[in-house]
Design goal:
By secondary structure, the chain is an alpha+beta fold. The protein is built from 10 helices and 38 strands. β20 and β21 form a beta hairpin. The radius of gyration is 25 Å and the shape is globular.
Length: about 650
């Protein structure tokens, strides 16, 4: 008998190969567990756009069929309570006689009996999110109102007072209200009265007569994201009942089949960590169910027995946890997979997306009591033809005795040399995030150059509990910087690294850490700093995220000299005159999160030292480009900068 020989992967991964990647997201399983709808996205580089399809996977047959092809503005998808219809958000249907009509996002319904999609809403400003009423006959949805002074704005009488606006804002914020509309369409009604505005997620109560909604507290600006209150609103008369407060920030209610309500709240001892509470059907008597878990949790959804499925970074993996109403924690078996979005059927079957160390995201299914999930899709089978570097966790001790971790990716076996190899630090943003062993296309592209890639989970990362996340306060830059250097020492002790060829890089918080490291350590051969918070004083004044700096550093830098001095001490700009590392700086022209002027400051400071520096700006609004051509260009420049200085 002859044994079949498996051909080993033969190709070396290049940046252009990542164009083959298919994105699989937003799983929605039918109540009976027989079908799963997913959003499948492919990039069209010729037209610089993303094609989005809605695909239905038959669980038993493992067969896929496209329900909706190339949907503009595709967003949320969700099954009706009986599974007979699929609602989704997409760009409204344009009237041929009015090209400007209906470009905003609207709710559509796709009947599963073979009918055509039906547009339900016609909001001028678009729909942001929706929830099916439990009887399936109506929706609650959120939408911004048209600016009250629209006529004056059209006449250029458009000056506005600034309070907590970002530097990119060109008008005062308009309120976002909650509405109800029947499944068949028609006229909508506002849910609630008064000047309060929606500030997050919402969900119907079991009886459909009330809605639990996240609202912005008082007259707070929407950019004050830590001022959120959970209330119950009577649909018929608009009466508002505030729910008990476990912390100043409560949001995103989720309803169980039996009526209980779960919601997230910021941990009062450290608002950078989200917890989950369970309340009765009226939203009363809430209690935390995540104290024993001690992780920054997200994505709460209910099993039929009242237990909750939660997602959280845990060490170097993103895991699922099952939490009982009493707070008991059970691991959900995922093997080496890092969890993504999920959906639960009435019998407890979990449909979810996940990423393996050697494969981009696919759709998986975990049956009740199963020991391991099964993969339902094969969109990214192409990756099996490529040699990939092995990724493993790495652990070290911080300067003050805490355990820290990160991820180290080695070059593919065929790329390893007999000598020492370059090393690139690829630092995650956040800081409430973490690097995991999940597949990263760009990490693998860098490893294919023969480089080791180190992804440190510095202090502030959300994968080791609240103490680890909050001990960065108030030294948001210097403490994580020392953590990263301690992690680097561990890498140098365990891998054959050429210490004369080490690069450091990151975007957002990763860019901040890069800028600080090159100003406080001259070992680096090259650096890439993207969208970096180089100046905390300017960030505090100009960012859209007004609660971030006070949460991690302290009161306004203008409140007293000691606060100003602390903000300055934690700013990389204060150390820019020390930089001797060739540095590539990148930013969006209209970055509202990390204001673009911070990059200009840092660029000119480095340039004044005579150090090689290049500053590239993308003419878009946002914290990171969204179109495939510009995204690829960022990584092309990132890669080329390290090839130039580290060799390949």
């Amino acid at each position: 008998m002859l044994l079949a020989l498996t051909t080993p992967p033969a190709l070396t991964l290049k940046l252009s190969d990542l164009r083959k990647t298919v994105s699989v997201s937003s799983p929605a399983i039918t109540p009976d567990g027989k079908n799963v709808a997913i959003i499948v996205r492919r990039n069209d580089y010729g037209k610089d756009r993303t094609q989005a399809d809605v695909v239905l996977i038959n669980v038993r047959a493992r067969a896929a069929r496209t329900l909706l092809h190339d949907v503009s503005g595709l967003g949320q998808i969700d099954w009706s309570p009986n599974g007979s219809q699929l609602a989704y958000i997409a760009q409204g249907i344009v009237d041929p006689d009015d090209p400007a009509s209906e470009k905003a996002s609207q709710i559509f319904i796709l009947p599963m009996n073979g009918g055509e999609p039906f547009q339900v809403t016609h909001e001028k400003t678009g729909v942001d999110g929706f929830d099916w009423r439990p009887d399936g006959r109506a929706f609650a949805y959120s939408a911004h109102i048209v600016a009250p002074n629209a006529a004056a704005i059209k006449a250029h009488d458009d000056a506005f007072d600034v309070t907590d606006e970002a530097w990119t804002d060109q008008s005062a914020p308009t309120p976002e209200y909650l509405y109800q509309i029947m499944r068949s369409g028609g006229k909508s009604q506002r849910i609630g009265t008064g000047t309060w505005r929606v500030g997050g997620g919402f969900a119907y109560a079991r009886d459909g007569r009330q809605v639990f909604v996240t609202r912005i507290v008082g007259d707070k600006h929407p950019n004050r994201y830590l001022s959120r209150q959970l209330v119950r609103v009577n649909v018929a008369n608009g009466n508002v009942t505030p729910l008990p407060q476990l912390s100043p920030t409560q949001a995103d209610p989720v309803r169980a089949a039996a009526g209980q309500i779960a919601f997230s709240f910021a941990n009062p001892r450290g608002t950078m960590q989200s917890e989950v509470a369970l309340a009765d059907a009226g939203g009363m008597h809430p209690h935390s169910v995540t104290a024993r878990l001690d992780r920054n949790v997200a994505g709460a959804s209910f099993f039929s027995d009242g237990s909750l499925l939660l997602t959280a970074n845990d060490a170097t993996q993103r895991r699922f946890f099952r939490i009982s109403p009493a707070g008991a924690v059970a691991n959900v078996p995922l093997g080496v997979l890092s969890a993504g979005g999920s959906s639960i059927s009435s019998n407890g079957t979990i449909a979810f997306t996940a990423t393996a160390p050697d494969r981009p995201a696919e759709l998986y299914l975990l049956l009740p009591n199963a020991r391991a999930p099964v993969r339902l899709t094969n969109y990214n089978a192409w990756i099996a033809r490529y040699r990939l570097g092995a990724t493993r966790p790495i652990i070290w001790r911080t300067f003050d005795g805490l355990t820290a971790d990160g991820v180290l990716t080695a070059p593919p076996a065929s790329m390893k040399s007999s000598g020492r190899a370059p090393l690139v630090l690829y630092i995650h943003g956040g800081p409430t995030a973490a690097s995991t062993t999940a597949y990263s296309g760009f990490v693998q592209v860098m490893a294919a150059h023969g480089w080791y890639v180190f992804q440190p989970n510095y202090r502030g990362s959300d994968n080791l509990g609240l103490r680890y996340a909050r001990t960065t306060v108030p030294h948001i830059t210097s403490v994580p910087g020392r953590d990263i250097e301690a992690g680097l020492a561990r890498v140098l002790a365990t891998a054959p690294i050429d210490t004369n060829r080490i690069g450091v890089s990151g975007w957002s918080e990763g860019g901040l850490m890069t800028s600080w490291l090159i100003g406080n350590d001259r070992r680096w051969r090259a650096a890439v700093s993207g969208a970096a918070v180089n100046d905390w004083v300017q960030y505090d004044s100009m960012s859209d995220s007004k609660d971030f700096a006070p949460q991690f550093i302290g009161k306004s830098p203008w409140s007293r000299p000691s606060e100003y001095n602390l903000y300055e001490a934690e700013s990389p700009l204060s150390y820019a005159s020390n930089v001797r590392t060739p540095t590539l700086i990148m930013s969006d022209a209209g970055d509202f999160r990390v204001p673009t002027p911070l990059a200009y400051e840092f660029y000119h400071a480095i340039r004044a030292t005579g150090t090689p520096v290049q500053f590239v700006v993308y003419p878009v609004v946002g914290h990171f480009p969204r179109d495939p051509v510009r995204i690829e260009d960022i990584y092309r420049r990132w890669e080329a900068w390290f090839v130039k200085y580290l060799g390949s």
